[in-house]
Every structure is written in structure tokens, then in C-alpha cells.
Amino acid sequence: MTPLIRLAALAAAATAFAAGAQAADFPDGKTITFVVPFAAGGPTDKVARDL
Fold first, then answer.
1. Is 31 inside any structural domain?
2. Residue 36: domain span
3. CB 45 within 8 A of CB 36
4. For residue 28, is it within any domain?
5. pTM to 2 decimal places
6. Helix (H, G, I), strand (E, B), or coil: what is residue 11?
7. pLDDT: is 29 or 47 the higher one?
8. What is the per-residue pLDDT for 21?
9. Is residue 50 part of a domain?
10. Is residue 7 domain-resident?
11. Which of 11, 26, 31, 39 is the most exposed place for a label (fewest CB within 10 A)?
12. What is the distance between the alpha carbons of residues 6 and 42, in angstroms, rounded to a whole number?
């Protein structure tokens, strides 16, 4: 078996198991607490507020 065919077979086998690794939906009505451990007014604070 050539290395290219072996790599293709490995990639096909890996993608077969990827469907079971999906995350569940986030429950409705729950809030997310996002803590930024840096001072207010900095670039990190700006990005967190934009989220």
C-alpha cells in the first residue's frame, strides 16, 4: 500500500467518526458570564464588549 493511499484511508476513517463529536445546543434562557481579567478601557475590554 502506497503512503498516499494509506493517508487517504486514514483520513476517510477519521472523518467517519467526526459526526458524533458535535456539541449540544445551549439551553435557552441562560445567560453567559464573561469575565475579562484586565482593566477597563483596554483593547481586551473593547473586544469583550463587542462580543
1. yes
2. 23-51
3. yes
4. yes
5. 0.39
6. helix
7. 47
8. 65
9. yes
10. no
11. 31
12. 50
